[in-house]
Structures are given as structure tokens and as C-alpha cells.
Design brief:
Blueprint (H helix, E strand, L loop, with lengths): L1 H13 L4 H4 L8 H14 L5 H13 L5 H6 L2 H10 L6 H19 L3 H7 L4 H8 L7 H11 L12 H10 L5 H5 L7 H12 L5 H9 L2
Helix pairs in contact: 1-14, 3-4, 3-10, 4-6, 6-7, 9-10, 11-13
């Protein structure tokens, strides 16, 4: 267990930012940041590099579209252009449509406040995943991305570890189950650990380098 904790700490020291943080989202349990996380999950769901999805999210937010009201008010072409500035070109037109449709759904169904979705699901991950997949562009993978990041501010979801998180854990020789991973770090750090493990799974971080860093401590 001590060795595993050293590996987890080394990973956090090397990759301590969540994807939401990297996209410029100051995640809190408020309507605006939660909607921004939904946008980011939509972008990350396509078969495109995470770095491109993050750049596209930053462009959308820089344009001022941080709420469903603002996203819907933007024209389809404006959304396409912002995605293009983030080099999100392969799926730009389809994604621009989905963002507009998803914004309208968020307003109609949840009055622009995803805390209502959280309350309807009573904080249960299975119910949350089902409700999230009603948004266009959010399939099981997108719901996993959203909940993996949202556990930072929705503690009743924690510890949430999706398939990619557990793949990263296996590559580092760490416990490949949520409870086992949760025992390696404090509660407040688990969301960051989950995101960091995804970076290992995606090849954005080297498992060998992390283990060497841990061994040198």
C-alpha cells in the first residue's frame, strides 16, 4: 500500500490538473461551471485528441458562451468558427449543432441548472449517467467524463472511476477498482487522481516515468 501511495502521489505531482481546470473551468456546484463541464464532456466524447477538445472548449468559453443561454444565442456559424479556431475541424459542424440543441434541452428540462439533474437522480451514478446521455453528443463515454470531473463538487458520486481511469491504474500497477484507488489519496484529491490516470491510459503521461519518479522518493 505504501508503494502504491507513492506512485499515486508521484502521478499527482506530475499531472495534478483535471481536464476541467485545463479547459479554464473553475468548477463549483453552480449552474455556469456545471454547464461548461457538460460542453467539455461533449467535446471530449468524439474521436479527437484531448488537447484539441480542450483548445476548442477554451475558444467557446473565450467567446462568452459559458451558459446555455449564451450558447443557444450564438449562431450555428459562430459556434463552427469558434470550434475551428480550436482546430476542432473534423466534427465542427455536427458538434456546433449538438451544442445548440443541448443548450436548449438544458434550458427546457433543467432550467439551465444541472444541479436539478443531480437532485432528480438523487446523486446516484447510474441514474446520473442515464440522464446525461439524453444530451446530444453525450453517450456513455461522455457521461463518464462528466461524472469523473464532477465528483470534485458532487461528493456523493465519489469515488467515480471510469474505464479509462481503471486502464491507467492497471498500467501503473495500482488497484483497478474505485475503492482501492480511493484509499491511496485524500477524498479531495480523488478527482484529480482519476483525471491523471486517464492521461496515463491515453498515453499523455508515461507509466514508466511515473514509477521511476515514485521509486526515487
Amino acid at each position: 500500500m505504501g508503494d502504491d501511495r507513492r506512485v499515486a502521489r508521484a502521478l499527482l505531482d506530475r499531472q495534478g490538473r483535471t481536464y476541467a481546470e485545463e479547459a479554464g473551468i473553475r468548477l463549483t456546484d453552480r449552474p455556469g461551471p456545471l454547464y461548461q463541464l457538460l460542453v467539455l464532456a461533449t467535446l471530449l466524447s468524439t474521436r479527437i485528441r484531448a488537447g484539441v477538445a480542450l483548445a476548442a472548449a477554451r475558444e467557446l468559453f473565450a467567446a462568452g458562451w459559458r451558459t446555455p443561454q449564451a450558447m443557444e444565442a450564438a449562431s450555428w456559424q459562430e459556434r463552427v468558427d469558434a470550434l475551428g479556431r480550436g482546430h476542432y475541424r473534423r466534427y465542427d459542424e455536427r458538434t456546433a449543432t449538438m451544442l445548440g440543441t443541448g443548450a436548449r434541452l438544458c434550458l427546457d428540462r433543467w432550467h439551465g441548472d444541472l444541479r436539478r439533474l443531480h437532485r432528480e437522480a438523487d446523486g446516484q451514478p447510474t441514474a446520473l449517467r442515464r440522464l446525461l446521455t439524453e444530451f446530444p453528443g453525450i453517450g456513455p463515454t461522455g457521461a463518464d467524463i462528466f461524472l469523473r470531473e464532477a465528483q470534485e463538487v458532487w461528493p456523493d458520486v465519489r469515488p467515480y472511476a471510469d474505464r479509462r481511469t481503471l486502464t491507467g491504474a492497471k498500467r501503473l500497477g495500482l488497484p483497478a477498482n474505485p475503492r482501492g484507488l480511493a484509499g491511496l489519496v485524500g477524498e479531495a484529491d480523488f478527482g484529480r487522481l482519476a483525471s491523471a490516470l486517464v492521461r496515463v491510459a491515453l498515453g499523455e503521461e508515461s507509466a514508466g516515468e511515473v514509477n521511476r519518479t515514485a521509486a526515487a522518493r
